[in-house]
Amino acid sequence: MSAEGIRRVVIAGGGTAGWMAAAAMAATFGKRINVTLVESDDIPTVGVGEATVPSILTFHRLLKIAEPEFLKATMGTFKLGIEFDGWKNRDTTYFHSFGDTGQGCWAAGFQHFWLRGRREGMAAEYGEYCLELKTAEQQKFNLLSDTRLNYAYHLDAGLYAKFLRGVAEKHGAVRVEGTIDQVVTRSDNGYIEALLLADGQRVEGDLFIDCTGFKGMLIEQTMTAGFDDWSHYLPCNRAVALQTDATESPRPYTKAIAHDFGWQWRIPLQHRTGNGVVFCDRYVSEDEATATLLANVEGAHRTDPRVIKFTTGQRQKYWVKNCVAVGLSSGFIEPMESTSIHMIQQAIMWLLLMFPNQGIDDSVVQDYNDRLRREVLAIRDFIVLHYHVTERRDTPFWEYLANMPIPQTLQHRLQVFKESGQVFKPQDDFFAENSWIQVMMGQGIQPEGYHPIVDNMSSQELAAFLGNIQRQVQQGVAKMVPHEAFVKRYLGL
Q1: Annotated catalytic sites, by residue?
Q2: Which of 36, 114, 141, 468 pairs with 16 at a CA distance of 20 to 30 A?
Q3: Strands (E), 52-117
């Protein structure tokens, strides 16, 4: 470490994780630190994280990224949520939208008013009270000052990394081309001292960020952080990805289609569609999964099917000594619910907030690890919910998921919601109460009770309350325009 503290930040690996880290570090600290990113043109990135969640807007604001410029560069479209097809059972579809549904009060969320309304036969479907859901259903979008939508993006991951590289280099980050051959550590304390590249280059640093993907070359192979395997909760361990030409106007949402052995994603960009199937090789072979994907995509193939192997789980520590894991090197939960880029962002944002200016402080490292782990555990529980709470028992895959033991933290949430309709959101839970409500009810849980404060309303008052919210949603949707037309107008295409 240099005498004046942390001044040289070295990022091992590029892709989305590496260039997000480089852009954020360089833009935040400017010339106070030197940011060097090492990547090899010969090592491909996974590059299938093409759907995001609304928190990415915060990251872009930090970097002062102009939205139209970003969307043009990444062939991006807008995303209002995810449609789940065939999850509760083969014949049902539900929608997990961003944003809020209805309006609650200080003591009770909207679901309590809705539950009483359903009991009295005066409430429409839950989704009728959500602007984002109804807008998505009609394949519309708009950016209006008086009718705000909560949204995220669909994007081309390869183009996004290229775009972020431009941002990072504009702020002074330096890219070094080369393959990492050896990680050099100090004999006195085990800290990483330098990366030795295959061509003989030596890249020294004070803080190293591991973005080397699943192999975790720094955090695991060098620092032996340890790994918690969550395959017993999330058994899928393979994905097959395929890009196809677009055959229809891009919908403002992701599709997640359940299959007998896993599920399929469909992500619409301006110029193409990202497709993939996620599965467990205990229940289906790679060839069979690939054949299922090929039978369920539309449009000419732009790429050959590509198999990606993974193990669900997380490092036991994300930060060890002077090494911080970001992205797939820190672990992987599941492609579902599009949390991969969000977790990259969270790892970076916490590192910026807790940056070890004068040197590594063990208490700060512990706090960083604890904070990230709590958030990852909450995301894990949310993903497990999709698989476990279902009526499906029609294949060995779904039979296992329905009967498997689940984390006690998730079991408690499900029990509370089933009995009372309550959703108490812990501080470290990224997903909003409305996300939990939409998925729990979409997967088949109907609460048995509601908060007694709702009974302070007369039936007439409740009917007027529900009707007014539904009319507001309808009026909001009326202000929207077709999604594809908005994208073209917004980007000047």
Answers
A1: 79
A2: 141
A3: 77-79, 81-85, 93-97
